[in-house]
Amino acid sequence: MNNLINNKITYVKLILAALFWGGNYIAGRIMSANLSPFTSAFLRFFAASVFLIIFVIKKYGKFPWVNFSQILLIICLGLTGIVGFGFFFFSGLKYITASRASIISSLNPSLITILSILILREKITMFKLTGIFLSFIGAIIVISKGNFLEIFSEKIGYGELSLLGSITCWAIFSVLGKIIMNKVKPIVAITYACLIGTFILIIPAYLEGQLHHFLQYDLTVWLSIVFLGFFGTALGFNWFYEGIDIIGPTQAGIFFNFVPVFATLLAVLILHERLYLSLVIGAAFVISGVFLTNYPNKENKIVIEVKS
Predict the structure, then answer these.
(1) Residue of 102, 22, 20 whose CA lies nearest to 262
(2) 243 vs 11, 82, 188, 205, 306, CA distance in Å?
(3) For 177-183, which contacts have Cβ atoms below 8 Å and span 24 or more sequence positions?
(4) Residues of 6-34 as b/e, b for ≥16 C-beta within 10 angstroms?
(5) Kindly report the CA angle at 48 between 46 and 50, in degrees rounded to 5?
(6) Is 199 exposed, middle or buried (0-12, 13-18, 19+ CB in 10 A)?
(7) Which long-range contacts (CB under 8 A, 24 or more apart) does 118-122 make?
(8) For range 96-115, the mean pLDDT
(9) 95: burial class by Cβ within 10 Å (0-12, 13-18, 19+)?
(10) Which of 10, 181, 195, 205 would be a feasible disulfide site paired with 42, CB 3.0-4.6 Å?
């Protein structure tokens, strides 16, 4: 019974994390239009680090220490999930629209699944494979507004390649997270990774020359920094890592396909864009896919398994 309740709470947190990340594309577009990639990434994760330190101290009463072997893994988390992901994310949003960026991000669950099979030897059921496929199709429906050919009407350029870089970093970050969480609590791992990544970002951000003029930033930029730092990173990353810890990287990763659904919905509510029927249909596919991926099927379990 306790496991069932914990799983339900985890699912709610993962959906909320996807909602926050949908908002990241709006906030990220605002920041990328005003600031350079390293500066944007540094400010986002600096704000997130402050919030995460508060979370950790409030929860444990002190700041937990980690040993040398654990810190090496956490440095890898910082390089992939903070430095690499942050740079490529803001670089991509500088050149392409949030909607086009979000369809590229829909490849994330598939990439996480591949890495989980190869690195973690995770077993994939037919339900999971079907769920991944349905949720991916749903994400495409949402972004293309039902016109699949429109996705391929634009050429692949620097923006698209940058977003591919960001999802690659995120997939590695997710799988490494499952390894480190065997010994370190999710929020502690995230906080250390964020601190290390932010520290690494200081030099390139400083060299871009925009940190000196922080008092001149527009109010919308500051609001974006706070949103990205608190909701889009501190809460979102923490809840996503909790999900990986409880239900695994593949099942947690599939919730990423809610991101383009929420990104489009937020554009309708905030930017007053038109609500398309494709959003409703696509959301139904995504929800069905998430349900199947997390369905507790116990028979005929193994579909794909990499053996040593």
Answers:
(1) 22
(2) 8, 19, 15, 31, 23
(3) 177/77, 177/81, 177/241, 177/244, 177/249, 178/116, 178/120, 178/244, 178/245, 178/248, 178/249, 179/73, 179/120, 180/70, 180/73, 180/74, 180/77, 181/241, 181/244, 181/245, 183/70
(4) ebeebbebbebbbbbbbbbbbbbbbbbee
(5) 75
(6) middle
(7) 118/306, 119/175, 120/175, 120/178, 120/179, 120/249, 121/305, 121/306, 121/307, 121/308, 122/248, 122/249, 122/250
(8) 74
(9) middle
(10) 205
Q: Is the pTM of this model over 0.70?
A: yes
From 114, 96, 91, 106, select the one nearest 40 (Cα to Cα): 91
The Cα 70–Cα 67 span in angstroms is: 5
On the question of pLDDT at 281 being above 50, the answer is yes
Task: Output the six-digit token pair for 43.
Answer: 């400010």
Ranges of each domain in the chain: 2-120+158-248
In the beta sheet, which residues pair with residue 304?
124
Does residue 174 come out as left (phi exceeding 0), alpha (psi in the -120 to 50 range) or beta?
Answer: alpha
pLDDT at 230: 95
Tell me, what amino acid is at 210?
Q
Least confident stretch, 20-24, 272-276, 285-289, 296-300 = 296-300
Asked whether the beta carbons of 74 and 180 are under 8 A apart, the reply is yes
